[in-house]
Structures are given as structure tokens and as C-alpha cells.
Specification:
single chain; alpha/beta; 6-stranded mixed beta sheet; about 20% strand; Glyc_kinase_flavodox-like_fold; Glycerate kinase; Glycerate_kinase_RE-like; kinase; transferase
Length: about 375
């Protein structure tokens, strides 16, 4: 019997690998002779680096970079290990690690001045280590600078009318007069960039970066107008510089316009995060011949349908006719819709109503116990 365990993390309590370990432990207590394949995964958001490093026996690189407000912060990215069968040496970067909203206290959030420079520094470090393939996860950013800070970090000169370097932040984009790519990092053209992006917002307008995501980063209605105008001007100068105009490409407005930035300066391709992760960890190949696939995340609800890990895993499994069980910390009232889209059974590990702190602290034990009971039920079914 072959069982593949491919969960996402349970946010704030267990990493994806820890989740996989507890599920295996519970199942192995009932089915000790089964073959277990653990593939910790993610959907391109928070936890993607750790999941993919764990899945491939890779390495976490930590370094000090420029934070959203210009101060130094400790950030990280991952280099995939021997378990990754790709042809190119690959790194995985979460934009939020260097430029995330969590790095700015609520009273200091101001997208007029926050910068994505630190994300560019992570990219440069990876390039300098000989990386030829970089996966970047967008989301959770504190910035609205269209990736301008990132571009400056990788060697682009963004200049005002006086020929001076543009100041950090989204509002400074209104002063952009020219772009000089002469000193762009020479290894960029030798590297393939894939960007995990699960929103389809354009750069500007009522559905753009500033209007949709600006308020959560501290933007007032007046700031939103300033930032939207500045991003539009930025896109004009990018186009005038001979770079393809992608301002209306779905995803251009992701992460404060970083979607446009990575397309413009890295020639990156935007893809659904779960698709990139599934392909990179070779879930389809590892699942061949499996009798059962187990997935999960912290919460299962109707939103899980939209690019979340369990649906990506279910899609891979169903293509091979494999049954899928999903386990979560919480299963909402509307989660049964998932049963119509490739998941065969849903289980919650929370035994009763508990305070959130207790739910999080007891997640490991509850996950093991639930997995053990699911395994017992599965064994009864298989014995018929």
C-alpha cells in the first residue's frame, strides 16, 4: 500500500512538514507496513519557501536586507536540494520575507514611502550564488512601489528629471523621468524567473494595486489616488523605455504592482502559485501508483477552491484516479462543496469548541489522533 501525504502548513502552529510527520505517525500506528511518501507543499504564499526546502532537502539562506522602511531586517530564501529533479539550480523567494507588511508596525504603515528594495537584494544574493531558476512568491507586501525598489537593487537606474536616483516608495514614482538598464545585474538574462501570483488585478484603476490593496497597507483615500496616479506614470515611463507595456496584464497589480515590476525587469512569467509548486516538487510523479493521497491546511472552506493547496493536490491525484482525504484544523460549514471538486472526505482535527490559543497549542496531538482514527477507518474499508 502506498500513501502520499501532501499537506500545506497549519498557519501559526505547524509547518507543512510537521503536519506531514504527524499524519504519517498516526497512519503508521495502524498501517505500519504501508509505504509513505511525504511531500510538504504550499500555494505560493507564506510558508512556500519552508515547504519546498523541506520537500527537497534544501537549504534556508538568511541575510540582512533593506526592509520596507529602509531599516535593516533579517530575511531569508530557500535553495532547493537533492530532492529537486529540475535541470537548473533553483531558489525560492517569498517577497514578504524582505518586504512584508508584518515587518512594519501598524502605526508606521505608509505605502507612500515603503520599498521593495530588500526583495531585490534577495534576488541578487541568489544570482551571485549561481542560481539559474528563481521562483518568487508575491503577496503580503507592505509596498506599493511597482517593484521599483526591487529594480534598483538589481541594478536598474530609475532617475528623476535632474538625473538623480528616485527616492524609495510609491509616491516617488510620479517623479520618474527615465530608466537606465545599463548596469542591470548581468546574470538576470541567464536566469529563468517564475512568479507565483494568485490575483488578476491590473496595475491601475478601481481594481488596481492602490485601490484594492493600498488601504490594508495604510493608504488613506487621498493616498490611493496619489499612488494610482504615480503607478500609471511609472508604467508610461517603462513603456517609453522600450519595455513591454504589461500594466493591464492580469496580476500586474499584485503585491503593490510588483507583478508589473517582475514582468518588466526580470522578464518573469506570472503563474498560479499552486501550479508552480506542484510541478517543482513533482507531486504527479511521486503519486504514481499511490492508493491514497492525504492533503490539508489550517482551514477548509469554500475559498479553498480558489488556488489553495488541497485543490491543487486533489487535481493531481484525481488525474491518476487516486482517492483524496483532506484534514484541517477547522472545517467550515460551506466546505462540503469541496466534495464536488475532487476531495473524497473532509476531517477536522478540533475535537470540541476551544479557545484559539489552545487549538493552536494542541494541534500536533489532535492531528496525530485524527490521522490515527482515519487510518483505522481506512483499514476497515480496505479489509472488505
Amino acid at each position: 500500500m502506498k500513501i502520499v501525504i501532501a499537506p500545506d502548513s497549519f498557519k501559526e502552529s505547524l509547518s507543512a512538514m510537521e503536519v506531514a510527520n504527524e499524519i504519517e505517525r498516526g497512519f503508521r500506528s495502524v498501517l505500519p507496513s504501508a509505504e509513505y511518501i511525504k511531500v510538504p507543499v504550499a500555494d505560493g504564499g507564506e510558508g512556500t519557501v519552508q515547504s519546498m526546502v523541506d520537500a527537497t532537502d534544501g537549504t534556508i539562506i538568511t541575510l540582512d536586507v533593506t526592509g520596507p522602511l529602509g531599516d535593516k531586517v533579517e530575511a531569508f530564501y530557500g535553495i532547493l536540494g537533492a530532492g529537486f529533479k529540475g535541470k537548473k539550480k533553483t531558489a525560492v523567494i517569498e517577497m514578504a520575507a524582505a518586504s512584508g507588511l508584518h515587518l512594519v508596525t501598524e502605526d508606521k504603515r505608509n505605502p507612500l514611502i515603503t520599498t521593495s528594495y530588500g526583495t531585490g537584494e534577495l534576488i541578487v544574493d541568489a544570482l551571485n550564488r549561481g542560481i539559474k531558476h528563481i521562483i518568487i512568491g508575491l503577496g503580503g507586501s507592505a509596498t506599493n512601489d511597482g517593484g521599483a525598489g526591487m529594480a534598483q537593487a538589481i541594478g536598474a537606474h530609475l532617475l528623476n528629471s535632474a538625473g538623480k536616483a528616485l527616492s524609495p516608495g510609491g509616491v516617488a514614482l510620479a517623479e520618474l523621468a527615465s530608466i537606465d538598464l545599463t548596469d542591470l545585474h548581468p546574470l538576470i538574462t541567464k536566469c529563468t524567473f517564475e512568479v507565483a501570483c494568485d490575483v488578476n488585478n491590473p496595475l491601475c484603476g478601481e481594481k488596481g494595486a492602490s485601490a484594492i490593496f493600498g488601504p490594508q497597507k495604510g493608504a488613506t483615500p487621498e493616498m490611493v489616488l496619489q499612488l494610482d496616479t504615480a503607478l500609471g506614470h511609472y508604467a508610461d515611463i517603462i513603456e517609453r523605455s522600450g519595455i513591454a507595456d504589461n500594466r493591464n496584464t492580469p496580476g500586474a497589480g499584485a503585491a503593490g504592482g510588483m507583478g508589473l515590476g517582475v514582468m518588466s525587469f526580470l522578464n518573469a512569467e506570472l503563474k498560479p502559485g499552486i501550479d508552480i509548486v506542484m510541478q517543482t516538487v513533482n507531486l504527479a510523479g511521486l503519486s504514481q501508483g499511490a492508493d491514497l493521497v492525504i492533503t490539508g491546511e489550517g482551514r477548509l472552506d469554500s475559498q479553498t477552491l480558489h488556488g489553495k493547496t488541497p485543490m491543487g493536490v486533489a487535481g493531481v491525484a484525481k488525474a491518476q484516479g487516486i482517492k483524496v482525504i483532506a484534514i484541517a484544523g477547522c472545517v467550515s460549514d460551506d466546505a462540503n462543496i469541496l466534495l464536488e471538486h475532487g476531495i473524497d472526505a473532509l476531517f477536522s482535527i478540533t475535537p470540541r469548541a476551544l479557545p484559539l490559543a489552545e487549538v493552536l497549542s494542541s494541534a500536533k496531538h489532535n492531528l496525530y489522533s485524527t490521522a490515527k482514527n482515519i487510518a483505522a477507518l481506512y483499514a476497515l474499508s480496505a479489509a472488505k
